Fold this protein.
Amino acid sequence: MSAPVKTRLPAAARRASIVDAAVELFSQRGFRGTTTRELAAACNISEPVLYQHFETKRILYEAILEAKREQDHRPGMEESLRAAAGTDDSQRFFGLLAAALLDWYVQDPRYVRLLMFAALEGHELSDLFFQRTVAGFYELVTGHIQRQIAAGRFRPVDPLVAARTFAGMLAHHGTIYSIYCPGHLCAGKEDIVSTAVDIFLKGIASNE
Amino acid sequence: MSAPVKTRLPAAARRASIVDAAVELFSQRGFRGTTTRELAAACNISEPVLYQHFETKRILYEAILEAKREQDHRPGMEESLRAAAGTDDSQRFFGLLAAALLDWYVQDPRYVRLLMFAALEGHELSDLFFQRTVAGFYELVTGHIQRQIAAGRFRPVDPLVAARTFAGMLAHHGTIYSIYCPGHLCAGKEDIVSTAVDIFLKGIASNE
DNA sequence: TCGCTAACCTAGTGAACACTAGGTTAGCAG
DNA sequence: CTGCTAACCTAGTGTTCACTAGGTTAGCGA
């Protein structure tokens, strides 16, 4: 046992502990499948304490989604991806991209499940999430593919179809990891990334 | 307006109409997000009628999942896939596979969403579904890949990694179609299939 | 036309839910 | 040690849920 659980926490710490428990429970049972009673029990507090930090259950849910959206907005990563996309080093660009994609799923499957619940339930913050994060992602990839096609290095394919096809190669492994086989990839991350990137780049290269 | 809605239906027809409405509602709002009141209203009946056909809401849900599982078990399709997998015509095998995969998603997105809800909620019938349908699928694909590697036509890659990578190429398009962009693929089914198959086969081919 | 039965309804039940009014206490400042 | 306040609690509220007891009617066979 680590430090004995302090029963009375300052507001910020209590709020954080609620968010953490909520991520865990919402990701396992979904929004509707989680009761405020369970939520309170998981934090070793009573229900009214929840409501001192979040006006409603839905506001707690939205706070989590919003926090995740901000956490995913990593200017450093985005910048290095954008830089790599601008070069002709497709191997490096798609390598970075694939690793970032797979990492996104593997890093915290709870959030992946949370976002899938949100997407299925048609939550508006899910739309926002996918519009900003995913749309920017595809813009980058289709741009790179388009330039490589123009330069004659890639075969002439529909860039969006190709981009989604590539994303799917990694997303599928990630989905299996976070939903169907919790915590288990069928190979090392590096192996999956290099296999996918190799197949994609050899497959899309023009027959010189 | 088609035929005027007969208010009083024989048992079999009423049961079918309930299942149909339930597939629609469960796929949109999930199991917990759908109330028996809504369900009854969607069928223009009262709640007790539901319970004359299905003992509980959960039994109705399971009846739908079970029906879908049986519907997906298509001996004809399975046989022709198995036959193609046994040959060395990878182009044909992966073409058939890709078309079947994408069709599975596009044919009725309601069921796709239903199964995703079930998977997220950890329903045991979802496990059963994926064990039977998906496991058999991967067995077929890894077998073919393994043989092609042994014959020197494919590069030596991990067959399961490659199989999942291929499945992901199409599953991702299907997922986007059924969840994020309802009813809209970014290209024709044939274009997506041929792009994915071309990239995969060129990408996995050994450098002769 | 009449009677029978399958199909359907009204009008509830207790339980579980999100949320709250109002009181209690831990623990720090002085 | 005392008093103050942020943190927490007990004990509910009204609402909505899945589900039901018991009665009504459509519509077909004879």
Remarks:
- The two ends of chain B are 62 Å apart (CA to CA).
- Residues 7-11, 14, 45-46, 48-49, 52 of chain B lie near DNA strand C (CB under 10 Å from a C1').
- Chain B touches chain A through 48 residues (CB under 8 Å).
- Chain B has two domains: 11-66, 73-204.
